[in-house]
Amino acid sequence: xxxxxxxxxxxxxxxPLVKAAAPATAEEQKSPDGWSFTSxxxxxxxxxxxxxxxxxxxxxxxxNGDAIAEGRWIKRVPLPPGxxxxxxxxxxxxxxxxxxxxIIAGIVWLDEKGKELANTEHxxxxxxxxAQGWRQIKATYPVPPKAKQAQLELRLRWSPQxxxxxxxxxxxxxQAPTPRKVKVASINHRPRGLKSAQENLDxxxxxxxxxxxQKADIICxxxxxxxxxxxxxxxxxxxxxxxxxTEFLGKIAAKHKSYxxxxxxxxDGKGAYNTSVLIGxxxxxxxxxxxxxxxxxxxxxxxxxxxxxxxFETDFGKVAMxxxxxxxxxxIARELSARGAEMILMxxxxxxxxxxxxxxxxxxxxxxxxxxxLRSAIYDQAGEAKAIAKDTSSCVVYADxxxxxxxxxxxxxxxxxxxxLEGPVRPDSNNTAADSRAQTSKAD
Length: 444
Prior knowledge:
Elements: H1 3-20, E1 36-38, E2 47-53, E3 56-62, E4 70-78, E5 84-94, H2 99-102, E6 103-110, E7 116-121, E8 135-142, E9 149-157, E10 163-174, E11 181-188, H3 197-213, E12 218-220, H4 234-237, H5 244-256, E13 259-268, E14 271-279, E15 285-290, H6 296-300, E16 312-313, E17 318-321, H7 330-338, E18 343-347, H8 353-363, E19 367-370, E20 377-379, E21 385-388, E22 395-402, E23 408-409, E24 413-414, H9 415-422, H10 433-437, E25 441-442
Parallel strand pairs: 11-12, 12-13, 16-25, 17-18, 18-19
Antiparallel strand pairs: 1-4, 2-3, 3-10, 4-9, 5-8, 5-10, 6-7, 6-9, 11-22, 13-14, 14-15, 16-17, 19-20, 20-21, 23-24
Helix pairs in contact: 3-5, 7-8
């Protein structure tokens, strides 16, 4: 038998031995404290390692250059006593396309036999980074009645060059979250036959004062409230902001210690805009939003579109504004939600109630509208009207909202936490959702 044939026979007999001696798969890798690394498919598993740091360690996942790579560190833990638990962890990442989509923390509820229950929690991974690049993950959840244990999951997916290091992930007993109640008022009023912007403002003052006397935390007014019913045009009604109208509204806000949202026409140098303002409890201008989506009548009338998506932090939560025609385009509400808005207030002339409901549902944020031709309303995350005017006659509607409350849907659980995990990449994906939320404006 020739030497060549002997070599072939030797190689053939060794191939099974080589396969059997291959390194442990990703599923078999272990780390301290009961953590193990796994992937839905071994052939697409990213790289994993444990990074020691004195007595501590980090759980590392690194992309393998493949856009479909996905893997996670997992650990099963008993539930601490009590009706609520707090999930905490921190992570540091690099080369991530979109943190809210690529980096996931999860709690999988399990019964006493280790069987997975229906809903899985996904604590947000979008907090701002500290000076060392670490981002906090923290959320409190009620324990499902049948849950006896939980599986903690720390995941990186779909990021070819990304790398993330997780540390200090744990589940601890917690108190029920403190409610963040806010009383919202929306004004339904259409001035008619008045001669000046000030007369329009005076006609609204009655209803603003009524809402203030009812201790409303925030009061929403309609679009272009100094123009409606006067036979004027956009440019003739435009004024500086701050200016006469914000000064007038500020005095009422300070009197009742209420926030006010109002639609005005703004002049800024050569530019003119359809603008909504937020006035603080102290009567000072907090900020403004310029309408991004303009119908033909407005750009033919000399108005220019805005291009910024500000979110403002109040003493009860983060709020944002849209204006009328914006509601016809889902991108506006979606971007404001991505930047952390917990409630959107929308001065509106007229439009479609179904679109208003849809914007609330698809972003899981309450939407408040103040209108002339629609019924002013306050919609919750399910698109249900918590308060709505009977018709378009003058009135004020009220609703109490809890911005700390979680809405769990029958099949999807906490949908707000899932929006970015399961949706498309944002167009500006080079800026992570975490970075966008870090741009939240500060209010008084």
